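User: Can you predict the 3D structure for this chain?
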Amino acid sequence: MKPYERDKLSLDNQVVKANTMIQGKYKMSALEQKLVLTLCSKITSNDDMFMEFTMTVNEFANFLGIDNKNYEFNRTLKRKCKILNNKDIEMNIGTKENPDWLFFHWFEYIRYIPGSATIKMKFSPVLEPYLLSIKETYTKYRLGYVINFKSEYSFRMYELMKSYEKIGERTITIEEIRELLMLDDNKYVKYSHLKTRVIQKSIEEINRYSDIKVELEKEEKEGRKVVGLVFSIKPNDYKYPIDNWLEYEEYEKKTKKELQAILNSLILARYKISFEEFRTDLFCKESILELIMELKHNDYEKSNIKYAIPYFTKVLQEKEKKFTGKEITNTEIRRYEIEKMVK
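Assistant: Here is the predicted structure, written as structure tokens:
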């Protein structure tokens, strides 16, 4: 059995789920969802069937930024694997008018090997049409936009909102929220408790850590009772931290002049135009370094860049304001460039 091609754990890895699955009912802790979504992000478009996924406990702990010096995380993850192996999901594979409920476990098996502190997991084949060979509408997002969530409800609320991002809003009843999040009948019975402890907390984390911005726009009522909620969904400009800190630290040690040369070579290679080093003299080292890391991680791959020099000059202007609070105008840049060219 071949391992997954996408061996590296990365915040840039994409999670792709059929919308039928997103509208399904299941309940997991925050850590359990991080483990499942990390596994989902290992699936590639070249896979035609689920394969065994292998990961060491330390590898996962380092990815999440967890200190595992006393091996406490080993015990925690072993316990979570045992719980996850019995977790199920309910999905309506029919229609709203003619439902057809499918019940099954997430995993075919989970193994925990104490000697090497390794876990081996394989998704249930029932999930293949919803994670692998998807033939219906789906939602995709990068793992980095959910990995920092603390609340177990934030993961579910994020996917429920993300699947409606193109529409720009979603109306959902209180009953649907309770069902989809699988809230116990005696939990958050009062709407005020549900709003503050589940909905507002989830929105706060989604807006802080993800690529969408969600706002509760309206509470729909029957009499004095709140029965439904209307959410607006917009793009968010949050960018999760880079996950390759070794590479970042390597570049951080370089001088500003060395970074200017690297930036020039990257832009020249990709956009066939020289971004001479004097063009970045006015910008701080941090602005240049961040742009280098973004280019190396293909952040501008889908941007429609016709004129690279003015485009990336503007990018650097925005970064300079972020890092130093200083606003460098186009006039200042042009005056400096003329001075350098004359010399």
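Residues 130 and 288 are 41 Å apart (CA to CA). Strands lie at 14-18, 53-56, 88-92, 101-105, 107-113, 118-123, 138-142, 169-173, 212-222, 225-235.
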